[in-house]
């Protein structure tokens, strides 16, 4: 890392760390939301960026994590413990589902991953005694003032985002990360070279679930109420993909940069175009695929010589 980039990283870290003590509750709400989406984008990047599998399961993992954490809290489990257990539950679920659908490729895999959220939504709707069904579920409210709550949930979401970022760095430099990049380039060739593609894809799919689950559990506690329609909103699958593509899929910092830019655009501009919001999302996807297939990092705006941060062979 060059001196300039190191200085920028230190300055960014200092600003993020100092934000809870400097910003008002409105800014903290936006920043917490931004950290949540950065986590979702980095998580999608494990399977979509590294392995090249177009997963739309992020909403399923987010919603299941939110409900798992919420139900555990209503049963008396302490909040942070409920978050951790929710992440474990969703990771096991993702590993099992991944084994079943990761033999599919392309749009077949995309469709299979997309319907997971719909299936889970219907299951949650039907479990009225446990989840509240379509009426939703109220969570215990923290007995602290509003400002302290805003600071607490900002720090909680920051911790989840930092864990996802650290995992990205480790994966990028690991044998598994190298194997996933081989799969992204040519899965059949990777298989002939002796790479255990099924195992690596399952690992990536599981990693893409654990942090959305944690973020969902934190989100449920943050808003103190969830319902199936909100928890399993398809936008929790679409927005992270756009963010990762915008910054640079398959890179380490690209999803974070993309999440920041996307959230700023949404907050400042798109609130004035609510009637065409979804249409704008679709248009951005098309434009990204056509003109920025490697994101901003791929054209050299945010990385030296325009090269994304990729793994080297171990």
Descriptive terms for the model:
two-stranded antiparallel ribbon, globular, 75% helix
Strand order of the main beta sheet, please? 1-2
List unreliable stretches of 5+ residues.
302-313
The succession of helices and strands, N to C, reads HHHHHHEHHHEHHHHH
Structural class comes to mainly alpha
Distance between the first and last residues' Cα: 20 Å
Average predicted local confidence, pLDDT: 87
DSSP strand tally: 2
Radius of gyration equals 19 Å
User: Number of helical segments?
Assistant: 14
Biggest β-sheet strands, sense, barrel: 2 strands, antiparallel
Shape: globular
Strand content: under 5%
Helix coverage percent: over 70%
Walkthrough of the structure:
With 314 residues, the chain is mainly α. The protein has helices spanning 3-22, 25-50, 58-74, 79-101, 106-126, 128-131, 146-172, 175-192, 197-223, 228-231, 235-247, 254-268, 277-291, 295-298, and strands at 137-138, 225-226. The longest helix is centred in the middle third of the chain and has 27 residues, at 146-172. It starts with a helix and ends in a 16-residue tail after the last helix. Mean pLDDT is 87; it is low at 302-313.
């Amino acid at each position: 890392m060059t001196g300039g980039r190191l200085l920028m990283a230190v300055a960014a870290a200092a600003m993020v760390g100092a934000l809870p003590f400097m910003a008002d509750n409105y800014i903290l709400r936006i920043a917490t939301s931004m950290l949540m989406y950065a986590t979702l984008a980095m998580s999608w990047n494990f399977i979509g960026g590294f392995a090249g599998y177009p997963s739309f399961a992020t909403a399923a993992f987010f919603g299941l994590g939110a409900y798992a954490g919420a139900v555990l809290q209503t049963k008396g489990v302490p909040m942070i413990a409920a978050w951790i257990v929710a992440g474990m539950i969703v990771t096991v679920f993702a590993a099992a589902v991944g084994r079943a659908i990761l033999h599919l490729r392309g749009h077949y895999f995309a469709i299979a991953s997309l319907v997971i959220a719909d299936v889970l939504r219907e299951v949650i709707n039907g479990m009225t005694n446990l989840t509240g069904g379509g009426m939703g579920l109220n969570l215990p409210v923290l007995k602290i003032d509003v400002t302290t709550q805003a600071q607490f949930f900002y720090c909680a979401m920051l911790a989840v985002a930092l864990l996802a970022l650290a995992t990205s760095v480790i994966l990028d430099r690991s044998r598994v990360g190298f194997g996933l990049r081989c799969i992204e380039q040519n899965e059949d060739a990777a298989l002939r070279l002796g790479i255990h593609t099924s195992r690596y894809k399952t690992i990536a799919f599981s990693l893409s679930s654990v942090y959305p689950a944690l973020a969902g559990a934190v989100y449920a506690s943050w808003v103190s109420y969830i319902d199936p329609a909100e928890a399993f909103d398809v936008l929790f699958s679409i927005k992270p993909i756009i963010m990762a593509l915008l910054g640079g899929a398959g890179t380490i910092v690209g999803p974070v940069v993309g999440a920041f830019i996307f959230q700023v655009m949404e907050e400042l501009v798109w609130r004035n175009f609510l009637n065409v919001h979804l249409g704008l999302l679709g248009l951005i996807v098309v434009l990204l695929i056509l003109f920025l297939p490697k994101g901003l990092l791929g054209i050299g705006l945010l990385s030296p010589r325009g090269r994304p941060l990729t793994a080297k062979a171990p």
